[in-house]
Amino acid sequence: MTFQQIKQTLKHRLSARRFEHSVGVSETAVQLAERHSGDVEKARLAGLLHDCAREMPRNTLLHTAQSFGIVMGSIERRELALLHAPIGARLAQTIYGITDPEIIAAIAAHTVGGPNLGQLSVIVYLADYIEPTRSFPGVDKLRSLAQTNLAAAMIESYDHSIQYIISRGGLIHPATVEGRNELLLQRDN
User: Considering Cα of 32, then 16, then 172, then 162, what sign does the dihedral take?
Assistant: First the structure.
């Protein structure tokens, strides 16, 4: 499929709001890739497809994850919405014909982050966080930080996510903690 064919397919499969968000993530990922010498075309595609499974009903998420053989921990079983990332990575392969491992990894990691993320995964994670339709206290600071320092922006976004999850009494995914700790150790060495 071409990029335009994928975009048209997503437009029909997603709600207008989710499609607008996906386009915003794609455009923001392109800006970050240009700014940080990343792969612009991979950023454009990964950003567009990152939420391709986001609107699946909860029962469908669970069934689809099982059919794909996606390993679920206790956190994913309780927070089924997290499954849209690894399922989206599989749908990118099976429906949209994406074979690039960096794009697939970026889609799979965009909700919780994690250690050892490649540049494309970092760009898509941040683009999802700061695209133009996002509005929360601190988003402008995060947008500015992402323009100059991707690692610092990731630490800030992890901090924001963790604080938000704690305020709601939610479970913090270990990958988020591992990703944050890795960046802090790198920064301090």
Answer: positive
- State CA 7 to chain mean position distance: 17
Instruction: State pTM to two decimals.
Output: 0.95
Rg (CA), the chain: 16
Question: How far apart are the C-alpha atoms of 31 and 33, rounded to whole Å?
Answer: 5
- DSSP character at residue 50: T
Residue 175 has pLDDT above 90, yes or no: yes
Give the number of domains in the chain. Answer: 1
Q: Which domain holds residue 95?
A: 3-135
Give the CATH number, domain containing residue 130: 1.10.3210.10
Residue 114 domain flag: yes
Q: Residue 80 burial (CB < 10 Å; 0-12/13-18/19+)?
A: middle
Q: For position 189, what pLDDT does the model report?
A: 82
Return the axis-axis angle of helices 119-130 and 139-148, rounded to nearest 10°.
Answer: 150
| C-alpha distance across the termini of the chain, in Å | 44
